[in-house]
From TrEMBL:
<feature type="binding site">
    <location>
        <position position="68"/>
    </location>
    <ligand>
        <name>substrate</name>
    </ligand>
</feature>
<dbReference type="InterPro" id="IPR052908">
    <property type="entry name" value="AP-4-A_phosphorylase"/>
</dbReference>
<keyword id="KW-0547">Nucleotide-binding</keyword>
<dbReference type="Pfam" id="PF01230">
    <property type="entry name" value="HIT"/>
</dbReference>
<dbReference type="GO" id="GO:0000166">
    <property type="term" value="F:nucleotide binding"/>
</dbReference>
<dbReference type="InterPro" id="IPR011146">
    <property type="entry name" value="HIT-like"/>
</dbReference>
<feature type="active site" description="Tele-AMP-histidine intermediate">
    <location>
        <position position="138"/>
    </location>
</feature>
<protein>
    <submittedName>
        <fullName>HIT domain-containing protein</fullName>
    </submittedName>
</protein>
<feature type="short sequence motif" description="Histidine triad motif">
    <location>
        <begin position="136"/>
        <end position="140"/>
    </location>
</feature>
<dbReference type="InterPro" id="IPR039383">
    <property type="entry name" value="FHIT"/>
</dbReference>
<dbReference type="GO" id="GO:0003824">
    <property type="term" value="F:catalytic activity"/>
</dbReference>
<dbReference type="InterPro" id="IPR036265">
    <property type="entry name" value="HIT-like_sf"/>
</dbReference>
<feature type="domain" description="HIT">
    <location>
        <begin position="42"/>
        <end position="151"/>
    </location>
</feature>
<feature type="binding site">
    <location>
        <position position="140"/>
    </location>
    <ligand>
        <name>substrate</name>
    </ligand>
</feature>
Length: 192
């Protein structure tokens, strides 16, 4: 049931409200660091796990690609520097270049595996800008399809994801260029 602005006190603004209660666990702080302490950061913990356990799709020298545990769409990836850094302007030149290259490669891989019609790319800098984990910078790579925003999440309070995250990770990792080379697990100089 959709709520109308006229159903509430104050001046109606003409907007309909779309409720997404399934996101409350995320909004409530599950697995989010309490502050900027690297030891509490899930993005610092992921690289120490196996690719399968951490849902890591690819690893570079300065950054890695991981599936989002709370995807907006199937195949939603995050490109994260290994270093615990919050602000894009604090990245080194090498980190900026690798985050950009991993983002480009992620788009190519997702296109080859899932044939999306487009992408949303972005970084939310700071909690007020929508960063769920503001203490550790991450670039979103969200595949989009015509009609992917439909009634199901709004009315049915259900998000249809066609595969388990582990299956999506396997497909993307196998399609990643150089996937058959020895895996890289370089986290040298890792301040996390």
């Amino acid at each position: 049931m959709s709520e109308q602005a006229t159903d509430h006190p104050g001046e109606p603004d003409g907007l309909e409200r779309l409720w997404t209660p399934h996101r409350m666990v995320y909004i409530g702080g599950q697995d989010k660091p309490a502050d900027a302490t690297p030891g509490e950061c899930p993005f610092c913990a992921v690289p120490a796990r196996s690719d399968e356990d951490g849902l890591v799709v690819a690893r570079g020298e300065h950054a890695y690609v991981v599936l989002n545990l709370y995807p907006y769409n199937a195949g939603h990836l995050l490109v994260c520097p290994y270093r615990h850094v919050a602000d894009y302007t604090d990245l080194t030149t090498d980190e900026v270049v690798e985050v950009a290259e991993l983002t480009r490669t992620a788009m190519t891989v997702v296109r080859a595996v899932s044939a999306p019609h487009g992408f949303n790319l972005g970084m939310n800098q700071g909690a007020v800008a929508g960063a769920g984990i503001a203490a550790h910078l991450h670039q979103h790579v969200v595949p989009r399809w015509a009609g992917d925003a439909n009634f199901l999440p709004v009315v049915g309070r259900t998000k249809a994801l066609p595969q388990l995250l582990s299956q999506t990770r396997e497909l993307f990792a196998a399609a990643w260029p150089g996937a058959h080379a020895a895996p890289t697990t370089s986290t040298e100089d890792d301040p996390c």
